[in-house]
Amino acid sequence: MKTKPDLSFMKLFNLSFGFFGVQIAYALQSANVSRIFATLGADPHDLSFFWILPPLMGIIVQPLVGKWSDNTWTRFGRRIPYLFIGALVAVLVMCMLPNAGSFGLTVSAAMIFGLVSLMFLDTSINMAMQPFKMMVGDMVNEKQKGLAYSIQSFLCNAGSLVGYLFPYIFTALGVANIAAQGEIPDSVKWSFYIGAIILILCVIYTTATVKEMPPKEYADYHGIKEEDTHEKVGMIELLIKAPKTFWTVGLVQFFCWAAFMYMWTYTNGAIAETAFDTPIVNNALDTASTQYQAAGDWVGVLFAVQAVGSVLWAVVLPMFSNRKFAYSLSLVLGAIGFISTYFIHNQYMLFISYALIGCAWAAMLAMPFTILTNSLSGKHMGTYLGLFNGTICLPQIVAAATGGLVLGCLPLTPSGIAPQGLMLVLAGIFLLLGAASVFIVNEKKQEVE
After folding, report:
1. 29-80, pLDDT tens digit by residue?
2. Most buried of 133, 229, 397, 449, CB within 10 angstroms?
């Protein structure tokens, strides 16, 4: 088996640049879905149900993209066609979702429109996101893989930073941040429109600058024999044969992604009450109020702080000689950040909490894929990475499906409303469990495919 050559920094950068645009779309979705549906009229106990669709689509789409692209070759490559089609659909849906309340529909009809838009948005984002991880596995040697995923992590966080800040920036520029009852403010709409333009431009850049390995070259570099190309192996069989690394890292992933699902779902409501003194109407936060929409903008700022913290921590992570210790420490710092949000009621002091959460995010973006791809041969790389996405999507589905029930079991706040802040404390406990699980991860390469 031939050894893949070293790639220049610029080639590694080009390989992942489109991820910057994809992550802007993902950040806009993460920071604004709860805000959008709460503004449309959703009850806090029902918010988590709206979050089931994104990971559900991911767990379906990404393994299929992995398996299909493993067996695809066109003049444009094997992964890039899926990337481009996914980005194109995402652009169209990003122009639809924030308009869910603008067509004169009833509340229930507007929510259904929003749900369908969200389903297509997350399907397309997942379709566009997965090829970037696969191309690194395909084209980068083991020596440079850590650097390649670090570049991807940097671009991911840079895209997140932009996406998270867009509503705050547009509001600062004078774009309306409040709207009629049940309608989404223009600051959010324009954030999605501009994000869509950046997304397609970034993906076009990667499509134009990256040339994937043709089938013969790919086979030479990954030790794939002629007879292997005709081998038909089902995803269930591959899952059964997956190396121990797949399952042990997957356990860590379960706790981590459940925690972040709670963050995306409940941060808006939590800080709207504690840091912005949002008025309460009929035992619920007044989502049409200036305070609630200001809190929605501030969520983007806090998530941007998280992204900056993640970028800075990503620089520190390679300095640790013990990867497991660095991984576990990152999750502990994130846990401290989540739990501290319950005790901090100053909007600026929350920067500390979300910077610490960024440490966990940095480790979650880089380490699982580095550990996993080093344990795999290239034979079914795309399929395995698609299946591994289940360790990201499944915990989010579980957290979203049970979030409303868990919230309903917690004691009401002194104001008599749902205690969304306690859900962030629970997220911190999940990260502590994840940190403990790191030490059972098996990092040895296992040729069991």
Report:
1. 888 888 888 888 888 878 888 888 778 887 788 778 877 887 788 888 888 8
2. 133
Cα(328)–Cα(235) distance, integer angstroms: 30
Delineate the domains of the chain, giving CATH numbers in brackets. Answer: 9-210+231-440 (1.20.1250.20)
pTM of the model: 0.77
Written as six digits, the tokens of 62 are: 């990404």
CA distance 89 to 28: 16
Q: For the segment 340-392, what is each residue's pLDDT rounded down to a tens digit?
A: 999 999 999 999 999 999 999 989 987 887 787 777 665 666 677 777 778 88
